[in-house]
Write a structure and sequence with these properties.
Blueprint (H helix, E strand, L loop, with lengths): L2 H37 L3 H34 L13 H32 L1
């Protein structure tokens, strides 16, 4: 694989990681507690937090798509990659565990995005 393609893939992979994880951390550890502390429990707080979440969702979904695409590019360019469903070395087994964790995170995100949050808003 071309070193330029791999370098571009690493760049976008890191940017998407920062947007996805950094946004989640910022929302849960900064925005939500500060909003609740400042504005209390009035109905406007829920509307404000819902507005922020709705503006952040497209960024998280795009970041996740970029992470998946660039991750596959990087994986196929790695010398330890033996092929699809081949777990003959430690690297392949570690990547499998990483992919299982990511699938779990994606499933949790989908349940929250399309199940829990709409139910809470009703």
């Amino acid at each position: 694989m071309s070193p330029l393609i791999l370098a571009i893939s690493y760049f976008f992979h890191l940017i998407a990681t920062v947007i996805w994880l950094g946004g989640l951390v910022a929302m849960t550890m900064l925005v939500w507690p500060a909003t609740r502390r400042t504005l209390g429990d009035n109905p406007g707080v829920l509307a404000f937090l819902t507005l922020i979440r709705n503006r952040f969702l497209p960024l998280t979904n795009l970041s996740l798509a970029v992470l998946v695409f660039t991750g596959f590019v990087q994986m196929s360019g790695d010398e330890h990659y033996d092929g699809l469903m081949q777990f003959s070395n430690e690297w392949s087994r570690a990547i499998l565990l990483k992919h299982l964790a990511i699938v779990g995170m994606v499933l949790c995100g989908l349940v929250l995005q399309y199940g829990v949050n709409p139910a809470l808003e009703r």
